[in-house]
Each structure stands twice: as C-alpha cells, then as structure tokens.
Amino acid sequence: MNLNQQAGPITDNSRAREEVMPGAAVIVNADDWGRDAVTSRRTLDCVLRGAVSSVSAMVFMEDSEQAAQLARQHDVDTGLHLNFTMPFSAPDCAPRLRDHQEKLSRFLRWHRLAPAVYHPGLRSSFEYAVKSQLEEYERIYGAPANRIDGHHHMHLCANVLAQGLLPAGIIVRRNLSFAAGEKSPFNRFYRRVQDKQLARRYRLADFFFDLQPLEPRQRLKEIFKLAEQFDVEVETHPVHDVEYKFLVDGELTQFAGEVSVARGYRLRFKDRSNCVRGEA
C-alpha cells in the first residue's frame, strides 16, 4: 500500500508542494471523550503527553460532565461526537431522548447499508437527537460545537445529511481514506460523492485515517508524509490497550520525521475547503 500515490491535483491552481510546509503536523483526534471515566482519563494522559491533538466529546454519557470540566481545566480542544447507536448512560438523560435514540439505533444497526438509506419515518427522531446533543454540548462546554464527527461515523448517515442537521461552515469529519484497491470501485465512488457534497457546506481535512492497523509500520510513515503537504486527521481510541500503550509510550513520534503531532484541531489549508481529497 502506497499512500503517497496521489489521486490527482487538488484544484487546477493548487498543487501539492514538494517542500515540507512550515509547521507541518498531523491531527491525532481521540474519539469517545466522556463515554466513561476510563476512556476520559486515558485520553487525557495522551493529550498531556502531546500524543493526541484533540478529542471528540460524547454527551449524555456517564462521564460527560466530568470530562467537560477536565477539558476546561487542561484546555483540551473538543468537538462533538454525535451518537445514535450507543445507549445514553447519564442518569439524568430524558426518557424521551432515550426512546428516540433506541429507534435510531435499531434502524442504523439493522443492516450495514442502513446508514446509506434515508428513512422518512425517523426524520423527527434524527432532528430531535441532533438538536438535543448540540444543545447539551453547548451547555456543558460553554460554546457551540465548531467541529462534529460521529460514533461509528453515523454523522454521515443519509438522514443527517439530507436533512441538513449539522450547522453550516463547521468542521465535519470526512469518510475514511483508502489506498487504491483497498475498497470496491462502488464503495470508493460513493465515498467520493459524499465527500464532495460535504465540502460544499462544511470544512474538511484532506485525508482521514484510523490509527489502526499499527502494522505494517510503513503505513504510519506514509500518513505522516502526507501531512507535510495536506491536512490529515488520524482517529484513535485510547480506551483500547494497544492504542493507549502506543500513544503514551511515544511510539507515534518515531514515524513523524519532520512532521509533529498538532496541538489542537487546526486545518492549515483553509483555501481547500471546497476541494475533495481523501484517496491516497
């Protein structure tokens, strides 16, 4: 797998430069912040060691309130991690919201292709669930979310996008990036079309990868290499032992070269907001 085989020019007048851009950095974002105390504490360890740039926060979960306090205390860069598939675990979560969540979860987990299907009967449930989570995030973090992704990537499900439920102009996580041959032509076409639609309304990173698999290690070197010239996000889940150890032991920096781990979620190439990348 060669992630450095680019999929063509970004735009007609915006070509990848050969030199390393000043301040080149990869965004390492930890998901599930606030899910439970173990997840939040492990993630904070990684943030304080400089191995994680930012976090995606869950609301209406058992550790959401405490995690918000930790974020303010340690100046952690946070965004909203929309959740439609995991039961809300906060004891004070409204029964009405739990009911809507159960409907959404049952539908989205029914079949692997369900997220790609628009369900008119769940229109009000999606609207209520998104609105409630946006409001709760603003309440406990003191400001509206300027960045959104989703648990199991469900922020990209058909209802959310077709209904325009995410605030325009914010940063939204794109589809996962893959090298040529990793996915079927239809899968790659669907993802590319969806990312193109996202780019019309939101700001996107140029590439998005999962931290795993950690082998072969050459994969991570190539991801960091991309970050020399593009905005690259890597998602991680420090609650998983293998990822937590990899991050806190400083192994990630061995692959960085001249690229660092970003401090906060920062998109350097704002002029690319209407451009579509994602294929490595």
Task: Describe the overall structure.
This protein is an alpha/beta fold. It has one domain: Glycoside hydrolase/deacetylase (TIM Barrel, Alpha-Beta Barrel), CATH 3.20.20.370. It has eight helices and eight strands. Strands 1, 2, 3, 4, 5, 6, 7 and 8 form an eight-stranded parallel β-sheet that branches. Helix 3 (95-108) packs across helix 4 (123-141). The longest helix has 19 residues, at 123-141. The radius of gyration is 18 Å and the shape is globular.
Summarize the SSE layout with pairings:
Elements (H helix, E strand, L loop, with lengths): L24 E9 L3 H12 L5 E4 L6 H11 L3 E5 L12 H14 L14 H19 L5 E4 L7 H5 L8 E2 L12 H17 L5 E4 L7 H9 L5 E5 L4 H8 L11 E2 L19
Helix pairs in contact: 1-2, 3-4
